[in-house]
TrEMBL record:
Protein name: Amino acid permease
InterPro entries: AA/rel_permease1 (IPR002293)
Subcellular location: Membrane
Pfam families: AA_permease_2
Membrane topology according to the record: Multi-pass membrane protein
TM spans (from-to): 35-62, 83-102, 108-129
Keywords: Membrane, Transmembrane, Transmembrane helix
Gene Ontology BP, a term: transmembrane transport
GO cellular component: membrane
Top-level lineage group: Bacteria
Organism: Clostridium perfringens
């Protein structure tokens, strides 16, 4: 990607090891602070869109599973806007509690995400089959 190319052109491999964020430093030194601000905005937008996608997909997944009586019925209730409100509240609570367990636990959660995705895919397939 373009950030790796900019970093490779800006610094020697030995210099990169001493930098805290080589890509950010390379953008500042080669393209200026304006480009760095655009990079930060793009990274923030990527994080926010990931959080938004997780909330939407997670709530729909929990709501759909609940509608097939595999989770408590309250998770599958739609509000007036067609949103699984209780599923979103559950995801928010779990998401707000998780960081307090520390970096190691979050690392385990991230490592297990592929297993979670496989389980979710299994449940969606099971629901589609029914």
């Amino acid at each position: 990607n373009i950030l790796n190319i900019i970093t490779a052109l800006a610094y020697a491999p030995s210099e990169v090891a001493n930098l805290e964020w080589a890509a950010g430093s390379a953008v500042i030194s080669t393209l200026g602070k304006g480009a760095f601000i655009m990079l930060v905005i793009a990274l923030c937008a990527a994080v926010w869109s990931g959080i938004n996608g997780f909330m939407i997909c997670g709530s729909k997944l929990l709501g759909s599973i609940a509608q097939y009586n595999m989770l408590p019925e309250s998770m599958g209730k739609l509000n007036s806007n067609g949103v699984f409100k209780n599923s979103i509240i559950f995801i928010v609570i779990v998401s707000l509690i998780a960081p307090w367990f520390g970096r190691e636990v979050i690392s385990w959660i991230v490592d297990m995400s592929s297993l979670g995705a496989s389980i979710a895919y299994f449940y969606v397939s099971l629901i589609a089959y029914r």
